[in-house]
Structure prediction request, 1119 residues.
Amino acid sequence: MLKSKTFVKKTRAGGVLKIVREHYLRDDICCGSEVCKERKDEAPVLQEDACIESNLCSYPHYLIPDTNVVLHQIDILEDPLIRNVIILQTVLQEVRHRSAPAYKRIKDAIHEKEKHFYTFTNEHHRETFIEREPGESANDRNDRAIRVAAKWYADHLAKKTNGGSLKVVLLTDDRANKEKAEQYGLIVYRCEEYIKSLIGNPELVDRLALQPDDQNEITDSKLLFPEHLPLSRIQSGIKNGVLLQGTFHANRDNYLEGTVFINREGEDINEVLLQGLQNLNRAVHQDVVAVELFPKERWVAPSSVVLQDDSPNDEDAEEDETENKRVVKSENVLKPTGRVVGIIKRNWRPYCGMLSQSMIKEVTGFNYKVNKVFFLHKKQTNIYIHVKKLRHPIKFHGVLYQDFNAYNLLLIFSQRIDMVPELLSSNLCSLRSNVERLAFSCIWEMNHNAEIIKTHFTKSVINSKASLTYAEAQMRIDDTTMNDDITKSLRGLNRLAKILKGRRTEKGALTLSSPEVRFHMDSETHDPIDLQTKELKETNSMVEEFMLLANISVAQKIYDEFSECALLRKHPSPPPSNYDILIKAAKSRLDSAKALADSLNNATVENFPYFNTLLRILATRCMMQAVYFCSGMDSDFHHYGLASPIYTHFTSPIRRYADIIVHRLLAVAINADSTYPELMDKHKQSSLCNNLNYRHKMAQYAQRASVAFHTQLFFKNKGIINEEGFILFVRKNAIIILIPKFGMEGAVFFDNKDKPSPRLIFDSEGPTLKVEQHTFRMFDKVKVTISLDASNIQHQRIRMALIEPVIPGVSVPVPESEPEAKKPKLDC
Amino acid sequence: MAAVQVSEAEKVYIMHGVRDDLRLDGRGCEDYRHMEIETDVVSNTDGSAKISLGHTDVLVGVKAEIGKPKAMVPDEGYLEFFVDCSANATPEFEGRGGEELGVELSNTLYKVFNNRQSVDLRSLCICPGENCWVLYVDVLLLQCDGNLFDAISIAIKAALFNTRIPKVHISEDEEGVKEIELSDDPYDCMRLNVENVPCIVTLCKIGHRHVVDATLQEKACSVASLLISVTHRGTVTCVRKMGGGSLDPESIFEMTEAGKRVGKALHAPLMELLQKEESLGKKRQKVGFLG
Prediction:
């Protein structure tokens, strides 16, 4: 029998289409039950004695769930206990339409033989097919189809068993449907009712999903975030300039703040500040977003508050944040501020996240709904190292090897992750004593004043006389009794290096400081036992000096040869505003690197040997990031830190990709190798530089995170430690303290969520922070306790608390000396 | 057009018959042949009708699509006609043979139907200046046995009566971007008011008299014919003279009067029939093309 199904559809172009489908009805569709003896071309699925112990249905029965039951109670249906279920075609189609995962799960259940699930194609059965009636909605029609099919089954089974006990039970949570089905003469139960009636299986009740349309409806459906705009509106908004498009960057210190970099040319605003979770509006780091600018009076300055993502529910924190904003307003460095209105392109990548526990307490069962997912986009503990596809074979010291477009050797936790295979990096490319090695040499002829007379680049074969560590070399130089050739030449080199360094410093090269930390590892457990800051020897400086010289010479050479596509490194001068904090701290005047270097050298305070180092650390913070660039794309080549007009990286090709490129350029320049198109394309070169800079930054972050992680491990084993430190920065609600012994920084917060915060007076000019009676200045010496706060397993962090100066209500009492009991644990 | 060869003697016989108000098949001069109409014959159209008048068979389908209103009349929809002279109808239509006739027919149909006196074009407007319904009226000639215009016009009226346009409503978001939304219910449809849709009555001048619904033989005896479109009130909305011969003003007047009379008499039973058919609803056994 032929019927036709007619429906009207809207096409994508906006037209309206009437679609007519032929629909064939059959009268040979099997009911799938064992009791039905007709047509046994396929084995029956539904068992004759479909028994499940229940208070409600003591007779054998088949279940027919409606669409919503399948959608919401799929957990129940998947339970091995639930068998002999008839899934109607109507139900299956609706499920497929509404939820792909549920459809897959129910399909899997149907395919499982032991489950005895049967699909009844009621839509094609002559007696169960119904047509939609005028005024009937699609859902009503489907509900009716389910009832008709259930009724047909009931009658069919009764006929086949001659009025036997086998029945069908319709499961529905829809009240109207239930009433109609009862009128129609069907046995019908609500899902919950039925499951609770099952004897001996109380655990199933736990798997029951809550019904949102029940009385205990969760009314608190507050919108957490403003809705994102549809793409069409975003596009028109960007076109007419109401919205701006840019890449979102989360702030690394403050999770409530972020910046959007607008990458449109000719735009006078290229950075938009975002503050508060509402305004960030679910943007994740590196998403391409559309932002709406606030009117000027709502512009704010980046807050100087350090915010920890502490509490799982941050609505209160947000309110605090708004208060903070008001205060910040008084400062005069307002930035364009706005809010995210839509996300144009997500930056999909693996995210770490955690599900926070539901705040709703339910009497029965679990609520499976996930209330919130916090993305920890700043605090990834896993480190992914992307190694991109291999591109060209490189000719590298005569060894043909495919190279990586990845950057840098990573030093994580004293483990090297090499850029090139180990054979290359630690054998073939290392100069060993009395072994011939292929090398690329830069040879200078110098007079005794270390003035270069001639520079020569060549591919070479080197047979090194000795390989020494820095310490060994240093010992030879210092040991006056040694007078062999090697030692003599070392001394000569050292003398030249000192002249070079002196000249460099003369020109204004900076010696900046950053606390470098090295862990002493337990060789078996790999737990850090102790940490210390790295110390530099004279020989380090000697090698460094010649490396710098080589880099500068090579930079000059490749730039002379390839003015358009030389890969160089520059270090832009920091804008004067960057020094604000330093000036405030040292009250010194700085306009050139030379002035900075001089003033740094002169800035010493008696009885405070660490003061100079502190200043240098601070000065480092003021610096810009040194970057790689392509000479054809930039005009400013100056390297501020080294006070060199031109600079590149040449000396470490086994751990830096930039050096490989420079090597290739140099090889071409001295006619030792042939070139290839990408090398000469300044746009490709420039994009490579961007990638190098990006990778470099990421590697730094990874390294820092690794240090932070191991610092944590270290303190985990140590318990509580008392240590001396210096105030590095003064913030509105905290002081940042540097512990010289560990080279680590930490914040001591003065505002506490649980306690009333002490009276805080912040003076941004000083900057000073007055807590109750005591005034904190930069570089003040303090004593703190350091401990690991592991109360939140996802957010373990080092916690510092103030011991000295003693401020009642703020500082903590001096804890007892280190618990000795902890120590043996480390050694084992 | 399909031509039949008629001898002189036959012509005289026909003309004499017409003079005496007795035609070859026994009809009077103002009588139509046996007519059969069925609507809703093509399921994938929005409205359709099939008519057979003697041996003339015509199928009309109406499809409603959303289009842009014409600039001159932004608040009206419009109709588009296409007449397909299928080679099934007569071998002369083979290849491009029927094209000329098709264009001629559709031009006439534009004149007769595509105006707001005939069809309520305003009701086809969805959003003034933006969207309107365009009714594509496709006419398929299945068999030609004279009097195509009358048959087509009656079929069009029946098909328009049968047409159900899905209801749409315009939703507008805050930015003023309009979106057309379809009703979820396929029974939620808009109907056209076909009260004023005219029918065409073609009168053929044979000898000193004129006949309605001429067969091909009668047509061969005629030198000129007059095509009159008449509404149910007897108003003439369009007159067109066809054929090479001349008509004197007096006979034009006479023919117009006859056309009005015949046309008026045609509408009432047609509407009655259509309403009766519709009242049968879905249970009606469809005859279709094989009946």
Q: What stands out?
A: The interface with chain A takes residues 43-46, 63-66, 166, 168, 173, 175, 177, 180-182, 184-187 of chain B (CB under 8 Å). Chain B has five helices and 14 strands.
